[in-house]
Structures are given as C-alpha cells and as structure tokens.
C-alpha cells in the first residue's frame, strides 16, 4: 500500500477483535505501560540517591531496568495508537527501526545479565580481588559494550533488509519482529547468515557464559561455608529468575516465527501480549523483593509516603 509519497506501509494483521475491544485493550496496555515506567524508575531512583547502592551489582540492575523501559517504549506507544486507529499500519522504515530496537535491546539484556553474572562470580569466588577487577572503568566498559555490540550486530541485517522487495504487506503480528522475513519475495542468504551470527553473538554466547558462570559459583559456594552459600543464594537467585523469564520470551519469539501457521490467531495474539506484559514488570518486582538492600529502601520509601 503506497501513498502519494511512495511510502510503503505494512498492515499489522495480528490484532484480534480490535474494533470491538479497542478501549479495553487500550486501558489494559496503557495501565501496564505506566506501571512499567513507575516500577522500573522507582528502583532506578533508589539506586541513584542511595550511596550504599552505588556498587557494580546495583548499577547493572539499574541499567537492566532502564533497558526494560526502553524495550517497552519501543512497543507500547505504537500499540496504543493502533488500538485507537481504524487501520493498524506502520511504514516499512518504521517497522525496520522497531525490529532493530527490539532485537538490539533484547541483546543488551543478555549482555547486561552476563555482566551481572561476571560481577557475582568475582564477588563470590574472588572476593579479595573484587575491588581491583570491578573498578568504575570496568563497569563503564561493560555498560557501553552491552548497548553498543548488540546494536552493531542487529544493524547489519536491518540495513540489508531495507532494499528487499516485498511481496506481502500483511505482517502476522502486532509489532515488527522476525515476522518481517515472511514479507519478502525471496530470502537473502547474506542476511540470513548475518542474522544467525547476530543471534549467536548476542544471545547464545552470553547465555552459555551466564550458565557457565553460575555453575562455577554454585560449585564453589557448595564447597564453602554457609555464609558464602547464603550470599550466593541471595544475590544469584534474582538474576537466574530474570534470565529464565527473558529466555522464555526469546524462545517464544523464535518459535512463533517458525511455526506461525500452526498457532490460531487468537492464541498467538494472547501469547504475544503476555510476552510483552510480564517481563518488563517482572524485573523490578524480582529485584525489589529479592535484593535485600533494595527491598529495605523500598519499604522506607513507602512508609515515608504513607506518613506524609
């Protein structure tokens, strides 16, 4: 569908009964989006203002929560507009940009979780060397790489897709993800190779590194005293829960693209909404409840608010 300026528009055909339930969809998603912003930035604010939280572990948590807000902002505003629009469409260039941000920020989450795993490994397994290894410059480098490397990796297949010829303008989804590959007339070997390389570098390798690191932590803490075991459990469990949650989201994204025709439209729509609903809220809840220092400051904040 081309307008007078020759802009190609993609029709987002994954919505279900949007004309009938548009205001219900909008209310639910708007409420969740506000909750995501408030919950994530509340913890980021606590980490910012309390000096005892200015440690690498909490800095990485703050970066992870900011990443969750950016991830949600890439999806929710357009989704809210679509719910109130007569036609659910997006320009092809905007679709590619959403695709780029979706996978770039997803890769950043894996890298940030890898940095957190390494931080926990050094803290628990090499406590005497921790101040020397995890310096401010090291943390800054990890944060920079966490956002820069995935962006560079995903930029290549996104750029290669820009000039691809489209034979289908109906995207089987509610936002732009790997489903855009089903729109092209022919598949590109070069793009597919870069896509596999990007997936390996920003998801598979970090995931293997995280699993290896936590395995080493568990082995060493098992051989140590109960104090070390307790510290490992308190600080590693929240990271593992977040890793499991995000890995499930990524697995769902891959599966739905591969077996898209086998999922009923309504089921796919509900599962997609759940995938983007839970995880951005899951992060602040887990870190707010499971991280002792953050939980303590949260209780003080809410108690002070009630008194006022």
SSE layout and pairings?
Layout: E1 9-12, H1 18-49, H2 56-73, H3 76-84, E2 89-91, H4 92-125, H5 130-133, H6 136-161, E3 170-171, H7 189-223, H8 226-258, H9 265-290, H10 292-307
Parallel strand pairs: 1-3
Antiparallel strand pairs: 1-2
InterPro entries: GPCR1_Superfamily_Member (IPR052921), GPCR_Rhodpsn (IPR000276), GPCR_Rhodpsn_7TM (IPR017452), Olfact_rcpt (IPR000725)
GO cellular component, one term: plasma membrane
Keywords: Cell membrane, Disulfide bond, G-protein coupled receptor, Glycoprotein, Membrane, Olfaction, Receptor, Sensory transduction, Transducer, Transmembrane, Transmembrane helix
Mean pLDDT: 85
CATH C-level class is Mainly Alpha
CATH topology category name: Rhopdopsin 7-helix transmembrane proteins
- Sketch the major β-sheet: 3 strands, mixed
Cα separation of the termini: 56 Å
Give the CATH architecture: Up-down Bundle
Secondary structure class reads mainly alpha
Q: What is the spatial order of strands in the main beta sheet? A: 2-1-3
Family: Belongs to the G-protein coupled receptor 1 family.
Organism: Seriola lalandi dorsalis
GO cellular component, one term: plasma membrane
Domain G-protein coupled receptors family 1 profile: 39-287
């Amino acid at each position: 569908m081309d307008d007078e300026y020759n802009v190609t528009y993609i029709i987002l055909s994954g919505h279900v009964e949007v004309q009938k339930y548009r205001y219900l969809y909008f209310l639910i998603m708007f409420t969740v989006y506000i909750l995501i912003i408030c919950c994530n930035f509340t913890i980021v604010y606590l980490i910012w203002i309390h000096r005892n939280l200015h440690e690498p572990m909490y800095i990485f948590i703050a970066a992870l929560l900011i990443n969750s807000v950016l991830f949600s902002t890439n999806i929710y505003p357009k989704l809210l507009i679509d719910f109130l629009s007569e036609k659910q469409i997006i320009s092809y260039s905007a679709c590619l940009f959403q695709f780029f941000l979706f996978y770039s920020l997803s890769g950043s989450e894996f890298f940030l979780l890898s940095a957190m795993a390494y931080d926990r490994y050094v803290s628990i397994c090499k406590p005497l060397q921790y101040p020397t290894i995890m310096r401010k410059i090291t943390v800054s480098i990890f944060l920079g790489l966490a956002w820069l490397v995935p962006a560079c990796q995903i930029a290549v297949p996104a750029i290669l897709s820009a000039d691809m010829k489209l034979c289908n303008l109906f995207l089987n989804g509610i936002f732009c993800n790997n489903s855009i590959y089903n729109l092209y007339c022919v598949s590109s070997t070069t793009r597919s190779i870069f896509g596999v390389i990007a997936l390996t570098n920003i998801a598979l390798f970090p995931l293997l590194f995280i699993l290896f690191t936590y395995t080493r932590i568990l082995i060493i803490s098992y051989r140590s005293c109960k104090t070390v075991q307790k510290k490992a459990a308190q600080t590693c469990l929240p990271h593992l829960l977040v890793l499991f949650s995000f890995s499930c989201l990524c697995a769902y994204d891959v599966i739905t693209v591969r077996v898209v025709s086998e999922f009923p439209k309504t089921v796919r729509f509900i599962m997609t909404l759940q995938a983007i609903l839970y995880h951005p809220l899951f992060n602040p809840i887990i870190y707010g409840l499971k991280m002792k220092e953050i939980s303590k400051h949260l209780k003080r904040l809410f108690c002070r608010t009630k008194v006022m």
